[in-house]
């Protein structure tokens, strides 16, 4: 058998962002699957229909040495795939710092592995409320909501992120703290004038090896998609890019315009379930508002002691008490949300790996012991660890919920987990009634 000819492969820096990119490729009509490890040749031979793949990584929450070890292996494997585009997918608020989730390191590793003269960086994602103007990033409060738009360093949530607080909205300055690579910009006026090719040539000739690209609307993304595809076709190597799901939106938009792929507009209905389980490691104000709404709409709240369960020696008895409570409520037809104290614990340094793993283990035991069919995972930093604890191996989109957070079907060797419906959302996603929406209250 042959491995599939892929149009794009991406590595997501966390689980939530990986399903975001999965959605926009699926909407554009590409047969796409999201894996948790780079699939082997033998694995891909089982899915010869695929036109795109993603890898749900966890580098957003890692230090530099761990990131380097993870990405050198992943990039080497991705470079061997039959594709013209490889994308390192980051959060649309460019979450990173020199110490954690360092995107500058990603840039350096990508330049070395893929042998490109330059790397395009597109962070804007207009349909998610993310806009880039003259290199500065603006973000709506709550993806899929009508929240106010803020410059990133003044955003009520992102400016106070517990791990990577945003104190600089100029993406060139922000990335410049993480790398010595020369950084340029294809600004909004050049995008508007469709003058990207000339501006790109001038800046690359001047030594710029990373070029941010501004965008504020869908027309801009179409222009950028054409530019990226032309650059990918013009060179002998895979075109490596960094950015939000704006990369998938841009390329998908251009491929649809050219008739390479036909957009998919029909999905299975979001049927209401008797009970929904929510596990949340998110401390964002957006998620806190959703928890408050859910408490008033028939969701049962189970608050976990996050500092205790992230200690070095975790007692199984501690998790078991949460598991037993959740099972009891779900068996009586109640929806349950298991979460930390939220804002009151923001100042306490917690291990994303330990918290995410604990939440995932709780969810797995609950699912194995009940007839639960749908799970919601909230929290970008913790989601990748929760998914691995749940023994999720791959998934594909089955229905939209809000843009950037689709409902997916799980593939797993664990019989209880295989076929599970899962929705994964970052801390900035959704209006106040989001948990009810995922439960199917509006179906």
SS-derived structural category: alpha/beta
Radius of gyration: 21 Å
What is the helical fraction, as a range of percent? 25-40%
How many distinct beta strands? 18
Cα distance, first to last residue?
A: 42 Å
Low-confidence region ranges: 343-347
What is the spatial order of strands in the main beta sheet? Answer: 9-10-5-11-4-1-3-2-16-17-18-15-12-14-13
Q: What portion of residues belong to β-strands? A: 15-25%
Global geometry: globular
What value does the average pLDDT take? 93
The major beta sheet can be summarized as: 15 strands, mixed
Number of helices: 15
Family: Belongs to the four-carbon acid sugar kinase family.
GO molecular function: kinase activity
Keywords: ATP-binding, Carbohydrate metabolism, Kinase, Nucleotide-binding, Transferase
Pfam families: NBD_C, SBD_N
Can you characterise this structure?
The longest helix is centred in the C-terminal third of the chain and has 18 residues, at 352-369. 37% of the residues lie in helices and 20% in strands. Helix 3 runs parallel beside helix 4 (103-114) and helix 13 (352-369) packs across helix 14 (380-389). With 443 residues, the chain is α/β, with parallel strands linked by helices. Strand 16 and strand 17 form a beta hairpin.
Question: Notable features of this structure?
Answer:
443 residues; 3-stranded antiparallel sheet; globular; alpha/beta; 18 strands; 37% helix; 15-stranded mixed sheet; single chain
Short description:
It contains 15 helices and 18 strands. It has helices at 15-27, 41-45, 64-79, 103-114, 171-176, 188-192, 196-205, 218-234, 246-258, 285-295, 306-309, 316-331, 352-369, 380-389, 434-439; strands spanning 8-12, 32-35, 52-56, 85-89, 119-122, 130-133, 136-140, 149-151, 183-186, 210-213, 239-243, 277-280, 299-303, 335-339, 374-378, 394-402, 405-411, 421-425.
